[in-house]
């Protein structure tokens, strides 16, 4: 007779199955409890994002001196993980936007994100024509 396998547990004593269930945010049910911040590029965009974070931190009761440090870091700091403005980022964008089929697949894959978060759908014809022209020059 084989021994019945014991459920694997994590260091905190919870089962892996229970842990997986706890990680989900039930986004659909809790959507109205979230504050959505959309990334914006450029100096003006970064200032907008920093202001949105500051508003949230103010609501959460974060002291002004802590908020000032966070805002300063958001406005001047870049992390080693930042991809904005890098050569690799521009190359990948060019690959994506110059391949209409790939762009269409990515748009379909993230269709509900476009809807839920109010992102503007890419104009596939305009974008692919623009990038096809720029790759030929």
TrEMBL record:
State one molecular function term (GO).
Answer: chondroitin 4-sulfotransferase activity
Its GO CC terms are: membrane
Q: Name one Pfam family in it.
A: Sulfotransfer_2
Q: A GO BP term, please?
A: chondroitin sulfate proteoglycan biosynthetic process
Record InterPro entries: Chst-1-like (IPR007669), Sulfotransferase (IPR005331)
- What is the official name of this protein in its record? Uncharacterized protein
The organism of origin for this protein:
Ancylostoma ceylanicum
């Amino acid at each position: 007779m084989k021994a019945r396998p014991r459920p694997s547990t994590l260091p905190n004593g919870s089962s892996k199955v229970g842990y997986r269930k706890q990680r989900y945010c039930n986004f659909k049910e809790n959507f109205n409890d979230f504050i959505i911040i959309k990334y914006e590029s450029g100096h003006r965009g970064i200032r907008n994002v920093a202001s949105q974070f500051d508003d949230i931190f103010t609501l959460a009761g974060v002291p002004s001196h802590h908020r000032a440090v966070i805002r300063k870091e958001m406005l001047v700091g870049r992390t080693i993980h930042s991809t904005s403005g890098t050569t690799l980022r521009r190359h990948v964008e060019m690959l994506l936007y110059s391949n209409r089929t790939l762009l269409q697949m990515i748009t379909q894959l993230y269709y509900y994100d476009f809807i839920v978060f109010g992102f503007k759908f890419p104009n596939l014809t305009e974008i692919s024509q623009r990038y096809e022209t720029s790759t030929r020059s």
